[in-house]
## 1
Amino acid sequence: MSKSTVCILGLGYIGLPTAAMFASKGVNVVGVDTNIAVVDTINAGQVHIIEPGLQDVVALAISDGDLIASTIPVESDVYIICVPTPFYGDHQPDLTYVKSACGSIAPFLKKDSLVIVESTSPVGTTFQVCEWLSELQPNLDFPHNNEHPNVHIAYCPERVLPGNVMRELVDNDRIIGGMTDVCAKRSVQIYSEFVKGEFLLTDAKTAELAKLTENSFRDVNIAFANELSLICDNLAIDVWELIALSNRHPRVNVLNPGAGVGGHCIAVDPWFIVDAAPEQSRLIKTARLINDHKPVWVVDKIKSTILDIANETDKPIGDIVVACFGLTFKPDIDDLRESPALQIFQMLESQAKYTCLAVDANVKEIPNFKSQASLVSCDYAVEMADLCVVLVAHSEFREIIWDKPHLRNRTLNFVGPLTR
């Protein structure tokens, strides 16, 4: 396999680490991205995302010539689709990027090509990929309508945690959903270049739903914790103490609540199940609605606290400074996708009634910057703020002395105990 070529479509949080892992094993890899800045950055041996260990692997792969980034595909033996799969409108799945990726690789397909979809997708997407490709390459045989295809297609979802991707790509078990048994076995062969976890073979539809199920399971459990936080606030009970006590039961493991749920997977994937089976997914939909509402509830709490500060200090609301600690969707990464913390900050900043500061050393700028909001240091924020709001449990925030005199009872913490 080391002399074959793998073409990876999409060089984001999954595509680039996957490309780097293949290249680190001597596989010839061409990574494709439509963003020329991303392509130029990678070809310079640099990375455009924060992921521990990724920079060194990419730099070595580029130096050795095993990895090349490009804006267009090349003829390859294997094509792996790692493009985004967002939703639009009333949470309808948007497969535009997947379809575009199919269109870009179709001219290069040949007999014995292997196409793998990694993008988290609605059930039936892999079948749809077969149809799109067969329409563009009618002279080839595809597995959706041929018992003995000469183009092999499979669905192999990623199952990694941002911040720990480089290890989990190697060690985690891998679900392989082949359109045929041969498709699955070919996929196992390619991933065996670097995956040490067990390969779990199934059909494509089951693999698609398995990925959605994993993230929906997390979403439902987080929704339970978030709903508990609302109940505890209403009853004047410390939710963190409540959960700690409840978890002393040998068969109870309540998760921690937060400001919402973010990331491309957990905040998006459950909607794919709801869209496919709306009458049968009432619990999953309710969990999504609870988690989507949490940022709105947080903003209401912040606004209420601002009014209390104004009344207690006779300070005009326009002079009050609110500092939001954390913008990413989880601690110690730079990923802003579907981030509830970013959503909260932007809702506050759009009010234009008070000064908003943001603290997050993991990001370089605030998306959709509209007014005077700015990124500042921890020390500056703590010194200037009338109200500190902790939205993400970044490691650096554990070094802050939160009990400074002017901040007593003026810190809203939505991430749990922060100890030094």
Note: The mean pLDDT is 92.
## 2
Amino acid sequence: MLFTDVIRNKRDGGQLSGDEIQFFVDGLADSSIPAEQVSSLAMAIFLNSMSFDEAAKLTQAMASSGTVLDWRSEDLGGPVVDKHSTGGVGDKVSFMLAPIAAACGCYVPMISGRGLGHTGGTTDKAECIPGYNATPDFATFNKVVKSVGCAVIGQTSDLAPADRRLYAIRDVTGTVESVPLITASILSKKIAAGLDALVMDVKVGSGAFMSEFDQAMELADSIVRTAGKAGLTTHAIITDMNEVLGTTAGNALEIEESMRYLRNEQRDPRLDEVVLALCAEMLMVTGLETDRLVASQRCDEAVTSGRAAEVFGSMSAALGGPADFVEKSLTYLGTANVIKPVFAGGYLTEVDARSVGNAIIELGGGRRRVGEDLDLSVGFSDIAPIGTLLDAETPLAVIHAASDSDAATAAKNLVTACTFGKTPAADRPVIVKTMSGGS
């Protein structure tokens, strides 16, 4: 089989056969198909999409391209469940959600990705923690999940290796926003991780890959249906991404905000609502709770009691990080050379969150090409939420940059990404829709 024929088939609007999809996945996994041909097929799929059957076959083939975990022999004593976000700006939910869910009786083997397009990556953020091994071997991963209740790691070379390569190529070739490719990428990792259940956080808005509600619904439906075909019970929550989630955007800055949350010192209202909704849904999808309000209250208590913070500290230590990282996070995290506020006037009425994410890439906090090293200290903190009246005392945000010139560029980019008015904007709900079992 010639791979150029596979490309032509999809380029011309055809449906890929199971053999063609397996040929593609095998070539991804062993790197026998060069990057330019991979990107060509990815673009053809982006332009012509895939049928539900094609997407399901691609998902299952990528899940089987490497190691597939099986937790049944571990006798964990609780359900194995995970959450996955389609990506946003300032989305640091995983670092709070995993220990909260573990404190509530779940086992969370969270295998995440690096930055993709304008969105930040959980793996990159985890690597801000000194000594933290974000890519441990499977024996260590299993041990940490079993003993602590959760482990937040990056995708290893053994787990869905076909997706790992395709993910990196999509990131730099303008082929990220494809429903079947997003579906296959997410679910291949989750199926390979051996989950009992999954909760999806599907973002919608200016900072999401799906900017319109109909698009987000299409993606959520695709993920729920494809997961169901693979035997993975999945619920989806569509959440708003028309502004930065929380008060920070940037790798180390988001880790620090997450630790403040776990210490119950500062819990941004929109971030808190998303965290608790997703955690509660994890208890619902696994059957640990049958009432969402009770589930949410149980998750909240895991934070206020300090149990979630203890779990995170144990996870950090078990993966090579500091045992006291939650309590002393600021002493461990890197800081930028230049820290400056940026000011504007009037009410903040609208934010192009994608442009904010791109501004972080320009600061060096995100990738322009595969394998590029990041400056984990840069980004924005103290980000004003929509509706804030900005003046000489209340900044739009505080910029963290490597140089004064970088800070000046970031300030210009940030202000350009925002709209200001004389009256506050109407409130926008952060939880848009909950889909349980495809409903």
Note: The longest strand covers residues 197-204.
## 3
Amino acid sequence: MAKYFTKKGLEKLEKELEFLKKNKRMEISERIRQAASFGDLKENAAYDDAKDAQAFLEGRILELEEAIRSAMIVDEPEKTGKVQIGSNIVVGSSDGEEKFQIVLQEEVNVLEGKISYQSPLGSSFLGKKKGDEVGVETPGGQKIYKIIEVN
């Protein structure tokens, strides 16, 4: 199944994959080697922990390889002045100003302000332009955002 990424999002995955293969694999194999040198592997918690870390790492590598293999690149947004996938926006509300980037589901990172175009918040901004007001239903009730900037 194809996964959609922006060019930057795909590059980020490729860098993570390279780091995991070149650095993390060596680090974990060293942990396994050191833990194995402690003796009896049946009751060696350090060895079990290192093997668990290796299994998690290999699973993540497979996940990244599959995502990269099936990746479809979404073109960068055109400068239309309207909010679209890839847009960086600044919005104001009763809570102050917030910055968001509208991204594909695979690139969501709420801590970085990257919200999905499919989320209630992200989808309500799509197609809007600077100066528009957008109402979004939140758990605390209706919240009004005013779009201050669209890039």
Note: The longest helix spans residues 7-36.
## 4
Amino acid sequence: MARSGIGSANLLAELGADVVVTDMKRKDELGNFIQELNPSVRLVLGSHPEDIFVNADMVILSPGVPSDMPQVLRAQGMGIPVLGEFELAYQLATYGSGNPHILPLIREGHGGFLAVTGTNGKSTTTALLDCMIRKGGFQTVLGGNIGNALTGEMLGRVRHQQPVDYIVAEISSFQLETIRDFKPRGAAIMNITPDHLDRYHAMDAYTDAKARIFENQGEGDFLILNHDDPETMNLSRKKLTGERASMPGVHFFSRREKVDGLYTRDGVVYCNFQNRGPDTQNGELIMADEIRIKGVHNLENAMAASAMALLAGCSVKAIQDSLREFPGLEHRLEFVRELQGVQYFNDSKGTNIGAVVKSLESFSVPVVLIAGGRDKSGDFSQLRELVRTRLKALVLIGEAKEKIKRALGDLTDTIMADDLEKAVEISRRKAAPGDVVLLSPACASFDMFAHFEDRGQQFKKIVMGIK
């Protein structure tokens, strides 16, 4: 019953449904979540009684709940619809609730859903895309895996009958597992690198989940893919075949090659859309160094967002203005402060190895890296070359520190720390003027913190408290 559970329950209750929430946690473990629920919602805590599932008209799963729970499978076996929170949001926004007095949230004949997935970069891309769409004069709702449940963000607009042009959403592999009809007008896959292998156990299962973002797309829809990412391209070749009844328009972004879509060459971002009609503006879009968010990964994020915004009908000026103004997101390679010539960066959202790769590639100066937390079955040896060439020191915390030390400790000065405060203290001693101290954990936060935001906020508080 976290953000997605509360969003679903409150939205359904607003529409007149009889809602029961079940959660394995006790009342004292749920903190303020209970206070946020609509008073009509009934609570069953400490268990998931099967009779509640089999007597329901519909079962809604929060993203972290496995869809193979026995109670869920029993309900499915009885023909009861089982939807994820994201699919619920899609159906209510697109089709409406069945209540003739409450219209679908998306204006008839307008844009629809713009959805972004991938292992890394999806939150920044989604937020930047929303900025572009709004600056282009469209009304939007922003939500999903970006940190605010989409159902929760929809509630106020549904209550006050305020329709929108586009719903801009970040969608995770967990959310994609439980879609059914979800059909975005535009979709993007940023990249696919190993992640959540504690849940999927094999890369094929993880990539198949990501591919569901374009499963129902067809003619008139568009799909943006990272041409430089091997897993994404392999996935597209496997899934976008002639066997499909209808295909979306497929375009790309690339830092390396001229592609159908957006690409960079000699420090310039170019548009090169083919077969998109006379209204598509091709040619130079912006100088790369004019883009406010820095780093190679953010260049990719900027190109993906720009491609989607252009195809969604935004003006070039709205996109250029957004690229020059958008400051980036908290906990995503966020600059914290400079102290005695050392720059401190908070990349607490770097919860997998691919994210750490992107972050380290963004620096050309020596880095003291703080890493560790709860392992997600990651292969830390993939960081060996970057650790050898980029790191001045490696400071490790959390449950995974011994595993990381075994994989990387022979390559650089490696120190174990009991907690984040000690890790910052050690990092400060190791860094010299001109160096960077980077928190980019490559792990989940749940061994020591409530979530990655909590970890990032504590890091910033510690760093800002240094005298």
Note: The mean pLDDT is 91.
